[in-house]
Amino acid sequence: MNKYIILILSLSFLGYCKAQKQETQPFLNYSKTIDSLMQISYERGIFNGNVLVTRNDSLVYQKSFGYTDGSGQTELTKKTIFSPGSIAKEFVAVSIMMLIEKGDLQLDDKLSQFDLGLPAWSEKVTIKHLLNYVSGIPQIDYDTVKNEEDILKGLQLLPNLLFEPGTDFKYNNNSIFLQKRIIENVTKTTFQEFVKENIINPLKMTDVGFDLGYDYPNRARSFDVHKQNAAESIPSKGWLWVSIGDLNKWITALHNNKLISKESLETLLQNQYFKGQKCILGSSDDLFTIHMHGGQFYQFEAAFISEFKNDLNIILMSNNKSKSFEIIESVYNIMKGKPFRLSKKSIYRQIRSKCHENIALGIQYYYDLKKNNLDIYSFENPNELNALGYDLLSSKKMNESIKIFKLAVSEFPDNANLYDSLGEAYYTNKQYDLALLNYKKSLTLNPKNTNAEKMMEKIKKHSK
Predict the structure, then answer these.
(1) Domains of the chain: total
(2) Using CA atoms, how far apart are residues 31 and 334, in angstroms rounded to an integer?
(3) Same-domain status, 258 and 362
(4) Given CA atoms 118, 122, 127, 132 in this order, what sign does their dihedral have?
(5) Contact 347, 366 (CB under 8 A)
(6) Which domain, by its residues, includes 194?
(7) β pairing state of 312-318 and 49-55
(8) Residue 297, φ and ψ in degrees, nearest 5
(9) How far apart are CA 96 and CA 187, in angstroms?
(10) Can you tell me the distance from the alpha carbon of 96 to that of 182, in angstroms, rounded to the nearest whole number?
């Protein structure tokens, strides 16, 4: 019998049966089931990282899978330090709320109060707008900025906002940059020093730091599907790196109101302008019973699900971005005694080499796997073929890339993003008529696709 079928049967038995020993060892069955799930995920090549599950201050499960970088020479440990991606923004928002609770700031304070040399629009933008991504300030242009001076200069030269503050939503890192500047303006110290003094030291977080270089002890390096380490860089400073254990300390302290009040926490846990939209702490429900957040940075990926009432924390941190967000849902369902699923193997990773060598054989391999292994590979996920298409495009294999994107739109004919990708491949290959045709199709499927609109205008100007 196939080893995966055996493991799946074992998972099913552990996931749905209650052993007699559960009263004396309440977490034993959870731990075994989670371990089987994670082991399969690692063997399938869809998870490389650390896992931690705690409940009521007790350890349910903790384990490391894989290596600190693409070389595969050093194994991960529980003290390995990762980038948590956007989860690091929680430290910025909570710092703002700490200063508000002290009376040093107010939610309605305007940007113009902080001597940043910003244009007249800063009179309309408040801290509350920044915290909820409704300021109208655009995203940082990472193609042109190299450092914080460039970011600030870009904002100082920004003539107009994208929209009136509070009337629309735009997730962006300029809001985070400005919040850090506000903290520094008020405290007369760096954001990093403020967090160290008021959060890191009081919580006894020891495996943590800011803007860590590649050679920092226990610091993981992210790597891609080719086992190539990513060139991790960011123009702004003050980005937190943390171990999974210290991230657990942060979540626990935050939810037990050791840093800010319950009222302040609830202010951050829901978007104050648009119900159901992202908030700076990720997301919660109307009754504030659960807190979920995920983040990505290059090939780093981190996610947590936390329940307030049961004091349950589930955390995954990976340095080889794949399916952490899917896997953590399954771990959560295991802890809740609910049905869960095994994340499937990446079809992109499986057929990649053949597609680079011979695109016709690669596509035939795709169809063969779909015919015989539908339950093992993630054929239902359009992002798999999309990722492969861009892989080929970045390798300057234009025709191969176009063929994969054409395969993708034939498999998912109602997916606007895939037509946008095919349009980009045709545009890169200077096949402008076909690019225009696919951008039009994408815009028909998704009228809010502003990128398609911009590219269509660009192609029309080019044609003229």
Answers:
(1) 2
(2) 9
(3) no
(4) negative
(5) yes
(6) 85-290
(7) antiparallel
(8) -150, 115
(9) 11
(10) 8
Instruction: Give me the pLDDT at residue 236, please.
Output: 92
Beta bridge partners of 49: 65, 318
Residue in 251, 313, 255 with CA at minimum distance from that of residue 56: 313
For residues 255 and 355, state if they share a domain.
no
Same structural domain for residues 110 and 220? yes
d(CA 113, CA 136): 18
Mean pLDDT of the chain: 92
Mean pLDDT of 15-38: 66
Q: What is the pLDDT of residue 376?
A: 87
Residues 2, 273: Cα–Cα separation, whole Å? 52
Q: What tokens appear for 303 in the block?
A: 């996610």
Q: What percent of the chain has pLDDT over 70?
A: 94
Query: Cα 37 to the chain's mean position, in Å?
Result: 21
Q: Give the H/E segment covering residue 318.
A: strand 312-318
CA–CA separation, 401 and 404 (whole Å): 5
Mean of the pLDDT values across residues 343-369? 93
Give the burial class of 390: count Cβ atoms within 10 A of its Cβ; 0-12 exposed, 13-18 middle, 19 or more buried: middle
Predicted structure pTM score: 0.82
The predicted pLDDT at position 274 comes to 94
Q: Are residues 411 and 276 in the same domain?
A: no
- The token pair that represents 343 in the structure block: 């994340």
The tens digit of pLDDT for each residue in 102-125 reads: 999 999 999 999 999 999 999 999
Residue in 221, 394, 364 with CA at minimum distance from that of residue 299: 221
Spacing of C-alpha 294 from chain mean position: 5
Contact at 8 Å (CB) between 181 and 111? Answer: no
* Length of the chain, in residues: 464
Asked whether residue 318 is assigned to any structural domain, the reply reads: no
